[in-house]
């Protein structure tokens, strides 16, 4: 994957409704068509609304669709789950795996890697989330915590993935690490997985800090939760991404 490229991932989590998803996808698609940038925006709505988003986007749009999670199996007796081939069938080209909100439900590193393999097998690009807890951060154990999560990722059968570095304590808290700390974590991740790995930052990214965060060395984009719900903040973050590409 191309280092100079920028990815913005809009993770809506369990928010929105069909009408909002449709309107947002249509407007974001238009914003991107105008921008014609070296930026990929991936919209990850709740899975029941993927069809609404896809219909609003249309085939040729630069706006991409993503799932928020997938199962490691392709099909079977897994009530409530969604498989990677199903997401691909719905028009997704990306899927988030290993988000800390999923890991908090008991998902292990092995589970996350199995999901990443399933995603790649289905032709999707997994966005693999990793990050340290507040206790690990405060104990100065960020690199060690990341290393534990990186070992199984380094053993994946392919490298067609993105990494999202998301300190758990920065998610939805309006707190972010310093630019130096973000750069250090990204350097550490690249040293474990290879310098060609594209690493996004996630955790309280918004219109006010977007330019600074996207300007940090080795940051290839952002995974945005709360601020992605408003089209105006996404447009502002997209403008920051444009500057990065210049
Ligand atoms: P936030 O969420 O931007 O609301 O902090 C980020 C995430 O959970 O991916």
Amount of beta strand: 15-25%
Low-confidence stretches: none
Strand order of the largest sheet: 1-2-3-4-5-6-7-8
Number of helices: 10
Order of helices and strands: EHEHEHEHHEHHEHEHEH
- Class computed from helices, strands and strand pairing: alpha/beta
Largest sheet, strands/sense/barrel: 8 strands, parallel, barrel
Oligomer: single chain
Rg, rounded, reads: 17 Å
Number of strands: 8
- What small-molecule ligands were found? 2-phosphoglycolic acid
Q: Cα distance, first to last residue?
A: 19 Å
Structure in words:
An eight-stranded parallel beta barrel has the order 1-2-3-4-5-6-7-8, surrounded by five helices. Strand 1, helix 1 and strand 2 (39-44) form a beta-alpha-beta unit. The chain is 41% helix and 16% strand. Helix 1 runs parallel beside helix 10 (231-245) and helix 7 (142-154) packs parallel to helix 8. The chain is globular and about 45 Å long. The mean pLDDT is 95. With 246 residues, the protein is an alpha/beta fold. The protein binds 2-phosphoglycolic acid.
